[in-house]
Structure formats: structure tokens, C-alpha cells
């Protein structure tokens, strides 16, 4: 099983992977327990303690080791010294007063990027359309869609990403940018926060994977088609069944207004420009959301499927964590949807024993897109190679891991669901739309 660490991983992911590989190495060499006692301090492994202290220092703005995230593509060490001194650091000092958390300068960077490039480019297309520009615009939007969606993800879970003084921008930029990035107004909030995190991939979750054979292409296409063509109806009806009529009305209204906007821009303003600035991003994003959700929740434990540890996964990879704000820590996110994205690696290391005892699945060198692809190819050997074994998994052979993963994709019958899922009484412990929290 390869132990290669991608050098382009975030610094936190490198620390986590090195720690997990060290655990695996110690377990496989059958180290003497007395040796572990020498390395322990008050019951905490010194390797873990040092790694945890370092990760915490990266997030602590009072620490000399504190590192705000300014860009997704580059870390501070990658930027030339003169550029850091005269441009990046002065910008960072100003930006830290604008964003909600001093770690989150990157959110302002992205808001400025999308407003200056994506919005400007889209407006220009309506006045001076060309197919080359349209294709380049759609391609760049597709490239940005993941990062924008995960920035929006942080926004909807925590009532914003900017400080109180910038409330006007915090509440307005999503409504300007959502259609350009493929989102319909507020639908992500209603579907993800008010529905998905309430149900947690359980029987009443409209995006639940449990009723599908999760390594089968036909089942995936059924899952995808249901969302693409019926979510406008299914989500309001879900809220009505849950006696949340107000949410049903708001979700339906925002979706219909979004469709009306797309219709108006296509048929009454500029069909070609609308195709490349609105229709293509909308189609690609909805495909991407379902491909991603399938990858996040395809491996569901057959014994305890309602456990957050066993119904979602953790990925230590570049696309999810460097470009999409630690989206790979999906189990951590389900355990606490309002946890700050920079705190996920800290939580993981602090809770490593719980993850091991919970038989959680941790992978590296694979993202959610490729997770879905490899599952649909039934390439369990590749997935076994990507698994980072923890707990009892360390003792398993590659074949045993592949066989174990195969059991996690089996379709649940209605009888299974009745037996293995308890009625959900989760509360949507989330802020109201637009609410600013400290």
C-alpha cells in the first residue's frame, strides 16, 4: 500500500498523513508497548501532541506560527519575498479586518476575484458576444465552481464569512454570484442546511444514497436524474411532510424565481450569452453536486449506517482540501456542521481514537469525483490502495480492504432501513439565512 504524500497537499494534511503513516508503521512493526510508554506524556502520544500543537498554532492568530489562508493555489512560502512584503502582506493586514475570522482572507480574495473577473466577463458577453470568449468564460467558471460552492458552504452554515461592518457585502454577493456559478438562489441553503444535515443521508434525505447500489452506473443515473429533474418539487414536498410549510414556500419560490430569471435572460436578453454564463454553469454544477455527494456518501456501513463515522468519509487530497476549504473532512463536517473549516484537521487529530473505534474510512490521493468514478468502475483495488488504514484496518491485507469496501456499497432494502435506522430527531442547529454570528 503506497505511502506517498503529495507535496501539494495543505500543510495540515501533510501533518495528518505523516501522523497516520507513523501509526501504521508502528503497528506493523509490532512495537514493544514499553517503548510507547516512554513516548507518552499523561497518556498522550508525543507524536500526536506535537502535531496537534503545531496544527493549533497554525490557526491561532496570536501564535508566531499563525498562517492565514490568502490563496488556494499558493502558500506564503511559494510567493516571492518582495511580493509578500509589498503586496500580499499589506493586503492581508487589510483583509483580516474585513473577514469574519483572521484565517479566512482567502474568502475575500475569492469574492473579489469572482466579482472582478466572472461578473465582468459575463456582462461583457451580453454586449459583445463571441464563442471563444463564451467557451473560455464557461471553462473558467467551471474551474471556480468548486471553490465558490465551498465558500458558499461556509457562508450558509455560519451566517456569513465577512465581519459585521461588511454585512451589506456579505448578504449581497451570493445573490449576484450564485446564478453565474450555476446555483439557483438560496437553493443550496435550503437543500443542504435545512434538509441534508437534518437527515444525514438517512431514509428521509432526498439526496440519500442508501436505496441505491452504489457501485452501479444505472443506479447512479437514476439518482442523478431524480435530482436534476425533480428537486424543484421534491424539496418543497419534503418540507411539507415535515410540517415546515414556511420553508416549503420559500424553497419553491426561490427556485421558481431562479428558473424565471434563466428563462428571461435566455429568451428576452441574449440566448447565446445566457447559455455560456448561466445555462452551462447551472447544468455542470448540478451534475457536480450529485457526483460529489455520491462520492461522499457511497460507502455506508452495513451494520451501523446511521453513524456519522460510518456513513461518510474523510479525504486527504489536494482538490478537496487545498482548493475547496477542507471539504475532504466530510465526517468531521457531519459531526459538527458549524465547525470552522480550518479546525477540521485539529478535530481529526484530537479525535483520532474515536475515528478508529468508529471504523471511519480515511483516503488519500483521491477526490470525490474520482471516488465516484472508481466506485462505478468497481475498482476496489484502487480504492484499497488509497485507503489510509486506522484502527483494526491496519491489520488487513489489500484484498481484505477491497472486500470490506465492497460491502459498503450494497443497496439497503426497505426492511433493512426499518431495522437499522432510528427515527431522526436531529434539529437544524443552523443560523437563519443572512444571520450574522460572532
UniProtKB/TrEMBL annotation:
InterPro entries: FA_desaturase_dom (IPR005804). The chain crosses the membrane at residues 105-126, 132-152, 220-240, 260-285. GO terms for biological process: lipid metabolic process. Residues 138-356 form the Fatty acid desaturase domain. It comes from the Eukaryota. PANTHER family: FATTY ACID DESATURASE DOMAIN-CONTAINING PROTEIN-RELATED, ORF. This is Fatty acid desaturase domain-containing protein. It comes from Elsinoe ampelina.
Amino acid at each position: 500500500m503506497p505511502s506517498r504524500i503529495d507535496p501539494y497537499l495543505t500543510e495540515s494534511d501533510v501533518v495528518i498523513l505523516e501522523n497516520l503513516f507513523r501509526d501504521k508503521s508502528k503497528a506493523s512493526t509490532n512495537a514493544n508497548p514499553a517503548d510507547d510508554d516512554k513516548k507518552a506524556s499523561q497518556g498522550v502520544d508525543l507524536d500526536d501532541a506535537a502535531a496537534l500543537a503545531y496544527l493549533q498554532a497554525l490557526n491561532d492568530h496570536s501564535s508566531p506560527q499563525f498562517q492565514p489562508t490568502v490563496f488556494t493555489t499558493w502558500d506564503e512560502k511559494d510567493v516571492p519575498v518582495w511580493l509578500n512584503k509589498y503586496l500580499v502582506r499589506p493586503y492581508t493586514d487589510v483583509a483580516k479586518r474585513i473577514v469574519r475570522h483572521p484565517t479566512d482572507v482567502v474568502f475575500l480574495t475569492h469574492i473579489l476575484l469572482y466579482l472582478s473577473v466572472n461578473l465582468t466577463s459575463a456582462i461583457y458577453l451580453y454586449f459583445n458576444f463571441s464563442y471563444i470568449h463564451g467557451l473560455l468564460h464557461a471553462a473558467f467558471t467551471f474551474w471556480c465552481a468548486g471553490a465558490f460552492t465551498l465558500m458558499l458552504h461556509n457562508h450558509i452554515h455560519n451566517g456569513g464569512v465577512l465581519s459585521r461592518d461588511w454585512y451589506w457585502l456579505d448578504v449581497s454577493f451570493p445573490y449576484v454570484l450564485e446564478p453565474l456559478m450555476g446555483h439557483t438562489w438560496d437553493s443550496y441553503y435550503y437543500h443542504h442546511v435545512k434538509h441534508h444535515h437534518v437527515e444525514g443521508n438517512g431514509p428521509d434525505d432526498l439526496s440519500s444514497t442508501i436505496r441505491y447500489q452504489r457501485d452501479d452506473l444505472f443506479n447512479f443515473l437514476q439518482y442523478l436524474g431524480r435530482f436534476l429533474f425533480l428537486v424543484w418539487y421534491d424539496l418543497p414536498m419534503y418540507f411539507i411532510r415535515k410540517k415546515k410549510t414556511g420553508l416549503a414556500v420559500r424553497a419553491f419560490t426561490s427556485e421558481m424565481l431562479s428558473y424565471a430569471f434563466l428563462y428571461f435572460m435566455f429568451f428576452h436578453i441574449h440566448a447565446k450569452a445566457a447559455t455560456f454564463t448561466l445555462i452551462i454553469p447551472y447544468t455542470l454544477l448540478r451534475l457536480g453536486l450529485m457526483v460529489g455527494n455520491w462520492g461522499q456518501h457511497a460507502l455506508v456501513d452495513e451494520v451501523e449506517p446511521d453513524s456519522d463515522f460510518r456513513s461518510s468519509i474523510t479525504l486527504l487530497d489536494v482538490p478537496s482540501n487545498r482548493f475547496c476549504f477542507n471539504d475532504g473532512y466530510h465526517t468531521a463536517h457531519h459531526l459538527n456542521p458549524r465547525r470552522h473549516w480550518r479546525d477540521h484537521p485539529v478535530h481529526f487529530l484530537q479525535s483520532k481514537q474515536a475515528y478508529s473505534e468508529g471504523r471511519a474510512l480515511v483516503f488519500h490521493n483521491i477526490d470525490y469525483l474520482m471516488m465516484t468514478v472508481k466506485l462505478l468502475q468497481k475498482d476496489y483495488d484502487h480504492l484499497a490502495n488509497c485507503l489510509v488504514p486506522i484502527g483494526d484496518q491496519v491489520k488487513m491485507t489489500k484484498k481484505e480492504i477491497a472486500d470490506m469496501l465492497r460491502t459498503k456499497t450494497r443497496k439497503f432494502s426497505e426492511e433493512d432501513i426499518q431495522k437499522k435506522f432510528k427515527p431522526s430527531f436531529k434539529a437544524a442547529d443552523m443560523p437563519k439565512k443572512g444571520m450574522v454570528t460572532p
